[in-house]
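Appendix B, record 7
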Amino acid sequence: MPCPLQSLKKRAGERIHEKARMSRKKHIIGRALGLALSDPNLIRPYLRLVCRKNFMVPFERRFKNGYAALPARIQIHPTRRCNLKCEMCIQHRHSPEYTHSLSWYRPENELPLEAWIRFLDQACKFRPWINISGGEPMLYAGLIELIHAADQRALPIEINTNGTLLTRHADQLVQNGVALVSVSIDGPEDVHDMIRGQAGLFSRSMEGIAALFEAREITGGPAPIIQIACTVSKDNAKALKEMVPLAIRHHADVIVFQHTDFNTRENIKKHNLILSAEKARAYGLDIVQPSVPEGEYYQSRIGHGDVFLIRDALSRAKAQADGKIDVFMSPNIRLDELESYYFDVDYPGSHSCVGLWTTLRVMPDGTALPCLHARTGNIKGQDISDIWNGRIMRNLRRLVAKRLFPGCARCCHRRF
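Structure tokens (predicted):
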């Protein structure tokens, strides 16, 4: 006997195509509002996150001596496994021996679903926004059950994925009220497949987006918002001008152009001296050495000619959107700062971090790892509040409040 959702799909074909032809401008403007009205549980966590980033973090950084209100956002990495080897990914990818000291990369250390659910039981008391990332999170066997558990606890969920396994999970993501699905697409088919290292990946990801769009249209609800995340690199600089039209054709609601989190070998060497084992102990930190290992940072290959192409593509993106899709840049640097961003890692931009005061990042083995291999606890044996305002986390905040480390040069949590 066919399931109810399959029957609905069969009857809804014509309605889906009709909705796809509707005015995208009205559709986009109303989607976020519709999302909030359909699920009021989203409003408080979202407003809390915005308020903390823009108002409370500067106050806490200056006056709270390392303490912070409970996290407004929790990033869960149920696995660090991935089915791709993307050229610009900073996940450790160069050596099969990397797992000897980085326990969260070892699949046998991944937490069972029950441990994550106990963690969510703690989190639901203060209602953070939940981001599920990886690796590729859809490789985690208990992913849908984890999302369902978060939904049952009225925790808003967003998920980052490369999209290659999205088709099999699209229906369940819609049914479980996921607020946003961000799919990584780095260019048209030939460019995307070259960057991601396998032929056919673009088609699989686009099939996943189509399945998600179809499942959403059948329910008639606003969720999830479908986002395409395009990472800017030398390999797609010439193709960036094609991304907004591509995203519109494939029913995305949002496209975000992400500048890479990169560094230089010289800067990383300086960083690892500053956070050597001896100095880390003196600072009161627990850092897996080296703080930034070779193979776990990206060295940008962008040249001055590429910056011209990037600036041109980003400057025309808003006009291409024409109200049919929302366009964002991350970080949201000015176009006249692109040369400084890519060619001067010491560029004197803002030295303020928001991540340590807003986001708790938990790795597959339960390690709380905010950044730079600084371990601040483990959810297997500690309460969230004990980790979040524990001695090590406070020490790290106090240091970063004074000045960022060289390894922070292009971190996505840094304010530019």
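Remarks on this record: Strands lie at 73-76, 129-132, 157-161, 180-184, 225-232, 254-259, 326-330, 359-362, 367-368, 377-378. Residues 205 and 257 are 18 Å apart (CA to CA).
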